[in-house]
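Supplementary notes for students who missed Thursday's class. We covered one full example, reproduced here. Read the sequence, then the structure, then the short commentary at the end.
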Amino acid sequence: MTAQRRRAYIVSDLHLGGAGPQATGERGFQICTQTAALAEMIDRLAHEQPSGHPIELCINGDFVDFLAEPDTASGSNDLIWTPLRDDAKVAEQLLLTVVSRCAEVFAALRRFVERGHKLTVLLGNHDIELAYPRVRQLLQRQLGVSDQVSLRFIYDGEAYAIGDALVEHGNRYDGWNAIDYDALRRVCSLQSRGQPIPSNLRLQPPAGSQLVAAVMNPIKRNYPFIDLLKPESTAAVPLLLALEPGSRKLIAQFAKLAVKAGDHKLTSPSLPTRSGDISAAPQTERTSFAGGDLGFRGVGTDGDGELRALLGEALGSDQASLFLSLLAPTAGPAMRDGGFTSRGPLRGDIAARPSDKERSGGRDSFFAGGLSWARLILSSSSDPEGRLKALRIALRAFCDPTLFALGKVEPKEPLYRAAQELGQLGPFRYIVMGHTHLARDLPLSNGGRYLNSGTWADLMCVPDAVFSDDPGVSDGALRRLVDDIAERRYERLIMQKPTYVRLELLDDKVVSASVETYQSGARL
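Structure (token representation):
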């Protein structure tokens, strides 16, 4: 019997939706500006494969971005941001809005399935409403699919197998964005019968979604870089604090939501404790989504006390303790947006620099970075030089210039730890995830690989020059970064890395797996 060859392509974190810029120099709320390239890729997949060899395109979560679409208050121009829509009719209208904004992508997907290829969609944490029965049916109609052969939609927390490759979005291992699938099933069950949803049976949105709606989206109008810059909690937030001292109130809200995020714990790297997160295992240890306790890691007792004292002045002791837990290098939700009306560009020279003792390989010490975080929270608008100095130390302590390297190994990164454990359990040699927006191709201890499909959303990172050991180069790079952001000159800061996972299979065994960057005209 002849072995069957087939090919699968996996993309994730498309984040389709959000209004575009309304005026010159603005960015709007869309974070995916590569819809033309995405439509081109889908069309190429549909047409370039040999006849009789249908392929599979898997969209692995965060297909559309309901969190980027506001509600409009009646008789008002104000935007209302909602972490989750309970009303399926409202969600339907928002999906139609996204389809109209990204018409070329949906048209390409319709052509893809019309040619007999297979489309698989997995639920993410930005598109939870796609699970609602009416919204699923609407999506199916918009894609021109009349059956479940051409379109498979996985929305109940299951992972998806392509041969011996396991595919899932990855938010299951991120307490900020874990979904209570038990509650989601109850909601879908009631909606399918046209029944109202009692308040005690509603699905509570993830803490990360609440952070987007309540804290970050209002900020984005004035600081649109906030959901593009990676890492969010250790780069975007200190930059915001430096540019706008009034944003310190964000930290208290951030810390409160961290408590909710901490409710979604892990018994082991790949096993959630809560049954709603798809695990009936007993709780054996208190863990955060990062796989460690909520204590402050990396700082000795004396330094911890100094930080607590400084932060306690601004936040109070309880909030200070919570905030300290967020400074751990492995922590950081998929944060987005936020807003304040006053804008004051940060200017001035960097007055002081970290000592040689604090610096190591272009990085500053964790303790120095923590103190700088505290000083950013406590600083006033009349001290631009002090804020710039604190910002420099914080960025160099907590940010990594190799963040976007495809082969970057972070042993404590939650999704990678989960992949290692899932691979050891068998029968899957390859574990494919998304969610982090960071493309990865890493070895697993089982001989397979962890592949992260990255994102098609725009990205920003701290420029490499900020980490230079030459003070003049580092200071100049930081000043340019701050000035560019303050003046909304994002062109040279934004990068686009539209990545996807390519799987070649022989029967049900993956024989080739890779993470690729899409280039028009290049081999797919």
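Commentary. The longest strand covers residues 509-517. The chain has a mean pLDDT of 82. If anything here is unclear, bring it to office hours.
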